[in-house]
Write a structure and sequence with these properties.
This protein is of the alpha+beta class. It is built from three helices and six strands; from the N terminus they run βααββββαβ.
C-alpha cells in the first residue's frame, strides 16, 4: 500500500483558498489530476493496480481517542501542522523494491511554480498483511 499524506492547508490551496503561498489555479489542479490519472492508468496497464482512493479533507474527519479510559471525539480540522492520510494506492507487484519504484514516480507530481510546501513531501509504503499471515 502506498499512502499519501496531506494537511488541511494542502486541501485548502488545491481548492483555491490562499494559504502560505498562492492558491492553485484550475489549470494547475488539472495538471496534478492528469498526472495522477496517468500514474494510475500505467499501473492498470501493467497489471499492478489493485485499488486507489482519495480521502476527504481533514475538516471532514473525526478522531476517537482514549483519554483516562474514556473515548473522546475530536472533529477536524486538526492543527495545520498535523498531517493525515490523504489517499492510498494498493499495488500487486513483484517486490517491495518495485513498489518503491512506483511510489517514487509520485515525486514528479506537478505543483505550481513557487508553491510553498508546508512540510516535506513523502509517501509511506507498507505491505498489506494477508489475512492468513502472522503479524
Amino acid at each position: 500500500m502506498i499512502m499519501m499524506f496531506g494537511t488541511q492547508r494542502d486541501y485548502d490551496v488545491l481548492t483555491g483558498k490562499p494559504g502560505d503561498g498562492p492558491a492553485w489555479s484550475p489549470e494547475e489542479v488539472g495538471a496534478m489530476h492528469a498526472f495522477m490519472a496517468k500514474w494510475n492508468n500505467d499501473l492498470v496497464e501493467s497489471g499492478e493496480f489493485v485499488d486507489a482512493q482519495g480521502l476527504s479533507a481533514p475538516v471532514h474527519a473525526r478522531r476517537v481517542e482514549l483519554r483516562n479510559g474514556v473515548p473522546v471525539v475530536t472533529d477536524g480540522p486538526y492543527p495545520e501542522t498535523q498531517e493525515v492520510l490523504a489517499g492510498y494506492t494498493i499495488v500487486d507487484c513483484a517486490s517491495f523494491d518495485r513498489a518503491t519504484e512506483i511510489a517514487a514516480r509520485l515525486a514528479d507530481t506537478p505543483h505550481p511554480a513557487g508553491a510553498v510546501l508546508g512540510h516535506e513531501w513523502y509517501v509511506d509504503i507498507r505491505p498489506v498483511v494477508d489475512g492468513m499471515q502472522e503479524l
